[in-house]
Amino acid sequence: MRFLFLLFIVFPAIEIGIFLFLGNLIGILPTVLFMILTGIIGAAAAKKQGTEVYYKVQRDLQYGKMPGEAIADGLCIFIGGLLLMLPGFLSDLAGACLLIPFTRGWCKPILFKWLRGMSKNKRIIIK
């Protein structure tokens, strides 16, 4: 329940505050253009990296390897691309962290821990 409160009340309020602050600091037009630009860059980066991960999964499967790492990368890229396309500066920061391979390495253990927790709680079943 606290997570939903943060997601739907606190997070948008912080985003609106950042919009207002930057709108006053650099102006409305640059702020809006920056949001549009991050959405376009996010979509392009997610498409490029997503295609690379797709080929990596195929290659791993051809060699008989489990593509777990590549699938985790793909999930991070997908979520990162979505976050970059959402309007907001915090979501852009989180999305960029998921798209940059160096910082994605920090996020993947959190993703794996969350998935293991979901599996243990029987919320998702991994077979």
Which properties best describe this structure?
single chain; 127 residues; mainly alpha; 5 helices; 0% strand
Summarize this structure briefly.
86% of the residues lie in helices and 0% in strands. By secondary structure, the protein is mainly α. The chain is flat and about 55 Å long.
Please provide a written account of the structure.
With 127 residues, the chain is mostly helical. Helices cover 86% and strands 0% of the residues. The protein has a domain of 87 residues. α2 runs parallel beside α4. The model has no long low-confidence stretch (mean pLDDT 86). It is found in: Cell membrane.
Subunit arrangement of the protein: single chain
Q: What is the succession of H and E elements? A: HHHHH
The percent of residues in helical segments reads: over 70%
E-strand count = 0
Largest sheet: none
